[in-house]
Structures
1.
Amino acid sequence: MSIRIDRALTQIDGAWVHHREAGAGCQVLLLHQSPQHSAALLPLFEALGHSAHIMAPDLPGYGLSDLPPGRISVQSMAMHLVKWLEERGLCPTIVYGIHTGALVALELAAAIRPESMVLDGLPLFTADERKQLGEHYFPDLTPVADGTHLVTLWRRFYDQFRYFPWYATDRPFPGRGAPDPAAVQAAIDEAMISGGRCWAGYRAAIAYELVSARVAQLRGSVTLLYRPDDPLHAHRLKLPKLPANICVSEDGDALRHLRLALAAGHHSRNHDQ
C-alpha cells in the first residue's frame, strides 16, 4: 500500500525550501543528486516510509526550492539546510545522499552529527577534472530565435545516458546503447522544473575540493556506496585511507544499507532502554 507523502514550503533567509515528508519514527534525511530534485527519491519513501520518518528537501536552487541569496557553494547549501532542519524541528539520525547530495551530506555531518550515513557515489574529482568539467560540462543554453539552444539541451542529456562526462564520446558506458527518447525527455523535464536555477548548485558540486578532509572527520557508522553502473564508480579508487567507522560497498543497494542503519538504530535505542 502506498504511503501518504506530504509536501511543504518553508521560508529560510527569504528563500523558499520545498520538501517531501512521510512516516513516523526514526528520522531519515534523503538528499538527491544533480540536476534532479526530491521526486527522484520517491522509491525510497515507498520502501521506508512505513517504518521511519522520511524527509527529502529539494536542494537550494533545485526543483521548487529557491536559490538563497549570496554565492552558492556546497557549504552554503548545507548551512541553508541546517537552518531548514532547525525551523522544521527536525533532527535526522540517518542521512543518505547521492552524488551532489552526498557532498552536501558531508558538510551537514559536523552540524547535525547523524548516527549513520550512506553516501552513494561520493564524487572525488581531481583538480584537473574540476577544471575540465567546469569549462565543458555546462553548455551555453542562452535562448536563441531559431531554438537551437533546445537541441543543445537535448544533446547534453541524450549523451549523458551514454557517456561521462556527456561530451566525452570516446568513453561510453559499457553495455549501454542508444537511450530511450522518453527517458531523455523525462530527465530534461525534471531538471528544468527549477527553471535553470539548479545549474548554480551543480557547478558548486563540481568545484568542491574538501571531500578527503571531510571524510576524515566523519563520525558514527558510514557506508560509502559505489555502484558498478555508476559513472563515478572509479572514484572509490581515489578515497583516502579510511578510519574503522567507514566502510566501502560496491553492492549498489542503497535501500539495504538504509534498512541496516535503521535496524542498528532500533537495536541501540532498545539496548539503552
2.
Amino acid sequence: MVGKQLLFCIVSFVASTHFVLAQSDTLVPLADSVVVEIKNDTRFDDGRQLYKNDLSFLASAHTSGWGVQVRKGYNLDLFNKLYWSVGFSTIKHSKEVKISPFEGDAKGYVFGKKNTLSVLRGTFGYQKMLFEREEYKGVEVGFNLSGGFSLGLVKPVYLELQEPFVNGSSQGISIQAYDENKHSQIQIRGRAPFVYGINQIEFYPGLHLKAAVNIQYSAVDKSIRAVETGIVLDGFYKKVPIMAFSNNQQLFLNLFVSWQFGKKYTK
C-alpha cells in the first residue's frame, strides 16, 4: 500500500514538473514584459520608493519680514513625517514707516525705532500627507504642525546725526544710539551701518507655534520642490521695545509663504 502511494506521488511530481517546463516558454516572456513595462514607467524616476530622510532649505517672506531655514525630515511611513529645523527671521513693528533721507549717500531709517528684532528658532514638527501625487508632474499636498524655542535678538538702532551748526558751519556727523528724549527728526541724517550696536544685543527667550500647508510639485521624486504657506506665532517673555512712540508687543502673529528646495535620501 505504501509503495503504491509513493509511486503515485513520484508520478504526480514528474507530471507537474513536465507541465511547468512545457509552459515556461509562455511564462518567461510574460514576466519579461512586465519587468520591461515597470522599467519604462517614467512617471517617477525611482518607482516611488519610501525614502528614510530628507534635507531641505527654505526661504520665506512673511507679513513683517523675511526668514531662512534648514530642515531635516525623517519619514515614519509614506504618509507621516517628523522633522526638526533651525531658522532665522526678522520681525518688524506694524507701525514702522521707512523715511528716505535727502542726501544721496545716507541710508533710509525708521523714525522712532529704538531696536531691531531678529529671531532664532529651533523647531520640532510633524507633517501629514493629505493628497498623494499620482500622476507625472502632479502635486503632493501635506499639512504640518510645529513648534519650539524662539530666541529674540534685540539690537539698538544707531543713527548718523548731524551736529549743530556753529558760526555758519556744520560740526560734522556723529553716530549714536537713537534716544527719543534727545534726538529730533531734523537732526537725523540717516541710518548707521548695521555693525553698530552688535555688542549691545539683548536676548528675549520665547516660544513659537506654526501651522502650514505644504505643496510639493517636483517632477523628480527624490528632489524636493515645494511651496509652503501658513501662519506662525512668536511669543516672548515680555514686550519687545521696538518703537518709541507706539505700543510694543509680546506676541507676533504673521502669515508666511516659503519656497523649499532639497533632496530625499534612502540611507
3.
Amino acid sequence: MRRWTLAPLVLAAALVACGGGAATGDRPSEIAASPARGAEVTAATVAPVVPVAAATTIPTAALPSEAPLPVVPPSAVPSPSATTGTGGEVGARGPIEVSRGPGDRRELAFTFDCGGHAGPTREILEILREADVSVTFFMIGDWVRAYPDLARDIAARHELAHHSDRHPDYPSLTDAQIIADLEAGERTFLEVTGRATRPLWRAPSGARDDRVLAAAARAGWPVHVFWTQERNARGELVTGDSGDWRPFTPQQVANNLDLAAELGNGVITVSHCDSEQTRLVLRESLEAIKARGLRIVTVSELLR
C-alpha cells in the first residue's frame, strides 16, 4: 500500500498554531509546552488516496475467527488525499490526515469516540485513572450537552478532540454547514469544559472526502485523525478500530486491540465510550499493550 510521509514541522506547526500540544502529568487538560516548539519533529504517516469502489468489507484477518459476517465499518471509508505543507503554512496549504505516528518511539495513541449514551463511561474513566494513562477523547456536542459532568471529568485528565456537534453525515452537507457544525460543537466544549479542541478532529463515522477535510481545515481543524490500517508481519491487514461498536464479544474486541498493538510503534486505535465490551476488557487490554513495551499516550503526545 502506498503511503505518504509528512514533512518535518508540519504537524508541530498545526498543533502550536491552534494552541495544541502534548497533555502531560497529572493534569493533561493543561496544554504543556510542546517539545515540538523549535525542536525536532518526527514524521507521521498519512493515508493515501483510495477509490470509493475499494471500500468493501473489513479485512477478515483483523477479526477473531468467531466474528460474525463482516459489514462495511467506518474503517472501510476510503481515505482522501492529504496535502502536506511546511511550517506555519499548514492551515493555508490544506488538511493533513494522520493514521499513524512516528515509528521511532515505543508509543501507542489510544483514542475514544464519545457519542451515544453515557453507559459505562464512568467506569472506563476509572480504569484509565487506575492504569495512570491519559488518552484522547473525540467529543460530540450533543453528548457533552447531555452529560456535562462526565465531559468535565474527561477534560480534567484527558485530551479533547472534535467529533462534530450532532454527528451528521459531513459529505452530504455544504461547506458552510460543516463549518457551522464544528463551530457549534466547539462552543459547547468551551462552555462546558473550558477546553478547546483545535486542531484535532475526526469525521463522524469516518466519512470524509477532500472537500470535507478542506472545509474543516478552513474552520481551524487541519489535522484529521483516523486510525491505523496496515499489514502485519504475517501479511494480514489489521485495523486500529477495535470493533466495539459492532455486535462483537468482549474477547473479540480485546483481540482486535491486541492485533493493532502488535503492529508496534505509532499505532492509533479507536474505541467508544459507550461500549460495554470495551468496559469489560479495557483493563486487560491496557495491561497487554504495556506488556509489549508500548507507552499509551494522547494523539498530541504521539505527534509531538
4.
Amino acid sequence: MEAPKARLSTSMGEVLPLIHKKWECIKIHGRELNRNSLLANGTRFIRVAAPEIFGVRPELKRRLKITGPDSEMAAVPATGPGSKKYQRILDAAVEVIAERGYFSSPVSAIAKRAGVADGTIYLYFKSKDDVLRTAIDETFNKFHRQVEEEFKTLKGPREQLEYIAQVHLESHAVNRNMAILMQTEVRQSAKFIAEFSHHHLVKYIQVVREVVRRGQQEGIFRRDVSDGVVAHCMFGAIDELLSSAVFTGRVYDAKATAAQVMDVLLNGITAGNRE
C-alpha cells in the first residue's frame, strides 16, 4: 500500500534557511547529500533538517498533516507533547529521580532509561528542571480533570470532599515514583516548592473551598468555620498520610481512609458529636 502523503503546514520560506544551515549533516543510506539534492527534495527531508519547526519544541510547534487512508494517525503526534517518546522521557525522569535523587540524576541517566540519545531530551525540554516541572504539571492536571469529571454526577458537598481525598490518597498507588518525588525531592527545593504552591496547591485549595462554601450555604457545614482553614487541614492530613506511605511502605485503603479523614475533619473526635 502506498504510504500516505505529507502536506506541510508551514511555508517553505521558514524552512529553507534551516535546510541551508543543516544540509551538511544529513545523510541518506550512508551517502551525503549535496545542497542541490537536498533543496530538490526539501519536502521529503524537512523533518530531519528542521525539527525545531515540526512539533519538537512546544513554542515552535507545527505538525505534519497526513492525508489518505491512514489520516487517523495524525491524532497522535509523532513528536512533541502527546507523543510516545515525549511520555517515555517524562516517565523515565520520574523513575530515575525517585530512585537516585534530583542532583544525582544526570540527563544522560534519564535518556538511557527512556531509550533515547542524550541530545533528544533537549529537543523536547529546555532542561532537567523543565522535565521535572512538566511531569508534575501533567500529574496534577490529570488529578484536576478526574475530579472535575466526577463532579458532573457527584453533587453532595460531603461526597465531593471524600472523593477529592480518595483520589489524592490513590496517587501513591497509581504512581508511586511520583509520590516519592513529591514527598522528598520537590520539598528540598525552595524553587519547586514555590512553583508547586503557586500553581497546583492554590488550585487544590480553591476547589475544596468552593465545595465547603456550597455546603455552608446549603446548611450542611457550619457557617462559622473558615473554608480556607478547612481546605488546608484537609490537604495537610492527606499529605501527611502520603508521607507515611512513602517512608514506611504502609498501604492505605484510599476510599475507607478518605472517609475516615473526612469524618474526623467534619465531625471531630469528641464522643457523641457525630451527626
